[in-house]
Design a protein that fits this description.
By secondary structure, the protein is α/β, with parallel strands linked by helices. It has two domains: 17-96, Rossmann fold (3-Layer(aba) Sandwich), CATH 3.40.50.620; 99-209, Rossmann fold (3-Layer(aba) Sandwich), CATH 3.40.50. 26% of the residues lie in helices and 28% in strands. It contains seven helices and 13 strands. It has helices spanning 17-27, 38-51, 117-127, 135-139, 170-173, 193-196, 205-209; strands spanning 31-35, 56-59, 61-64, 69-75, 80-85, 91-95, 98-99, 105-109, 130-133, 155-156, 160-164, 181-186, 199-202. Strand 12, helix 6 and strand 13 form a beta-alpha-beta unit. It is elongated, with a radius of gyration of 20 Å. It binds flavin-adenine dinucleotide (FAD). Flavin-adenine dinucleotide binds at residues 77, 110-113, 134-136, 148, 150-153, 165-167, 169, 171-172, 185-188, 191, 204-206.
């Protein structure tokens, strides 16, 4: 089973779903892949409806046997991975891309580190790192959605990922699988994140970053 999909790949610029559907009717591609950013998420379902085909959203892995496209996506709240085949043509998927952040070190802030956010921000700024967040902080409007790492946020692959006050729910860790070294700082020595991290620091984020 190959992980690279097609013999002939054509990259097309962003244009209206109507134009992409017309092009697809003309050229009859086996598959159309869309990015899973805001544009892809909006345009892909419209094109799928126009072409009367199926669409698998938010795929994290694609495989092919040369004919069928096997699309993998998180299911069951992120604890399972579903393998999906589309019986209609063209086969369509929006595909998650892992964002290469400019900083090689990313510091992620969770609910347990909210009170240390000013100090963590300074630490990030002074060292040229990038800032990320768990959904808990984004839901509380402490940090913007662009910072959210996880199943319903972005996937990231920094060389070093420092998770501060993050419990390590699967909906968060599923998006840091491609990170290099994961360092966790958590007050609870039994936090799930320690089972995932390469290095762990048991402690209070306010004290450590204070
Ligand atoms: C469908 C679905 C999609 C989701 N998508 C996402 C997603 O994209 N991203 C995401 O992150 N989550 C997502 N979630 C939510 C996820 O399940 C968790 O609820 C969330 O990740 C928890 O965030 P948290 O770890 O910051 O907070 P908590 O679970 O509240 O954990 C806080 C941690 O901080 C520690 N702590 C407390 N005080 C301190 C201190 N002073 N110093 C150090 N540590 C301390 C605690 O021990 C605890 O481990 C999703 C859930 C669902 C159901």
């Amino acid at each position: 089973m190959a992980r690279a999909v097609a013999e002939t790949v054509r990259l097309i610029p962003r244009q209206s779903p109507q134009k992409i559907a017309a092009l697809a009717r003309e050229e009859k591609p086996q598959a159309i892949l869309w990015d899973s950013g805001p544009w892809g998420r909006r345009a892909a379902p419209q094109a799928a409806a126009l072409l009367q085909t199926g669409l698998c959203a938010d795929c994290t892995l694609l495989e092919t046997d040369g004919e069928s496209l096997f699309m993998y996506r998180p299911a069951g709240g992120g604890s399972l991975t579903a393998k999906i085949v589309c019986r209609t043509s063209p086969q369509m998927a929006t595909v998650r891309t892992t964002r290469q952040e400019s900083g090689q070190v990313m510091v992620a802030v969770g609910a347990g580190a909210a009170s240390a956010l000013p100090q963590i921000r300074r630490f990030v700024r002074e060292n040229g790192y990038s800032l990320a967040a768990s959904r808990a902080l984004v839901d509380q409007d402490v940090l913007p959605y662009q910072c959210q790492v996880g199943l319903t946020g972005k996937s990231v692959c920094p060389a070093v990922y420092i998770a501060c006050g993050i419990s390590g729910a699967v909906q968060h860790t599923c998006a840091i699988r491609q990170a290099g070294t994961v360092i966790a700082v958590n007050a609870d020595r039994n936090a799930r994140i320690f089972a995932y991290a390469d290095y762990g620091i048991v402690g209070d984020c306010a004290e450590i970053f204070g």
